[in-house]
Amino acid sequence: MKKKAGLWTLALLCLLVGCSSNGVSDSENAAEDKGITQMNEAQDTTSQEENSANLLIGEKVITTIDMTYETIEYQNSVTQLKEIIEKHQAYIETSNETTNSYNGNSNRTEAKLRQGTFSIRIPVEAVDDLLADLEGNLGTKVSEQIGNEDATKQYQDTQMRIEVLQRKEDRLLELLDQATVIEDILAIENNLSETVAEREILQSQNDNIDELVEYSTLYLTLLERSRISSQPGSTMPFWERAKEAIVDSAYTFYYWLQDTAIWLIYALPYLIILAVIVLLVLGVRRTNWWKKREAERASKNRQPSRYQEKKKIMAKRSDKKEPKEKDSE
Q: Where is the composition biased (Basic and acidic residues) (predicted)?
């Protein structure tokens, strides 16, 4: 009886141990399945984010900005520009200042006004702040254009070629250390120099991309104006447009008078020379005219004496004929 009781107890314990082991294994399998599912979901999310990022824009983005400003106080605007550039730790790469005769306009209201063009390199993190400072201090903004160029693929392709060339360079250096024949050494050195030159060229290209990415480029044109007028458009009322047209016309006439006066000043020596020549010609012609007139008067005064002489001659002839007639009688 006791043996049967012991057997039943042993069987019950085995059954309990088996059930517990099955429960533990099932819970572990469930936990593993849950972890794998979460890992797959995380990988899918990461891959989706990477794909969306690749579709939008890459790591190496080159930003280029073109802007045009108009100002009445040109020199003051240039000073403000330099202060803003220094404030944001940017620098002027190139600059050029010219004086326009017509400034691209059909009239001459903008004659002899200055125009400055600047190529400015700006740290990429300071671009927005610098543009905001220009908006309020430089003058009136006429145009703005911002462009982004994604150079990531080009950069990665170049970097892969650099790595390939670097490995080739390492192998050539190993072969150069092992070479003993002069012909082999010369051939390896020539190949090595070509490899190094090609790698350095590619590295300089990537360095240039890094610089363009770290510093955005701003091409700024600053135009000097005699006045800043509103651009007429469909949204401007008629009377405002008429007012602007009248003011512009007055400025045009004002500057036309100035241009005329300046032209006369430039042409004054030539006008004086021309006036002297005209006076000399008129004086010579007047002198000749007076001489001719005096000669005509003198000829008229001499005509009666000639007539009288002719009359005397006729009288003498008649006197000679009378005695001959008397003798014949």
A: 307-329
As a residue count, the chain comes to 329
Cα 144 from Cα 291, distance rounded (Å): 78
Number of structural domains the chain divides into:
3
Of the candidates 171, 162, 163, 164, the residue with the CA atom closest to the CA atom of residue 192: 171
What's the domain range around 103? 61-150
Residues 159 and 211 both lie in one domain? yes
186 in any annotated domain? yes
Domain's final residue, options 108, 125, 150: 150
Sign, Cα dihedral of 201, 202, 207, 213:
positive
Burial of 115 (0-12, 13-18, 19+ CB in 10 A): middle
Cα–Cα distance between 143 and 272 in angstroms, integer? 49
Same domain, 71 and 141: yes
Helix locations, the chain, DSSP H:
2-56, 74-87, 127-137, 152-178, 182-214, 238-328
φ, ψ dihedrals at 90, nearest 5°? -95, 180
Write the pLDDT tens digit of every residue in 140-155: 899 999 999 999 999 9
Based on the fold, state whether residues 133 and 161 are members of the same structural domain. no
Short-list 61, 5, 316, 85, CA closest to 212: 61
Residues 105 and 68 reside in one and the same domain: yes
What is the Cα–Cα distance from 152 to 131, expressed in whole angstroms?
26
pLDDT in tens, 200-246: 999 999 999 999 999 999 999 999 987 775 554 445 577 776 776 77
Angle at which helices 127-137 and 74-87 pack, to 10 degrees? Answer: 160
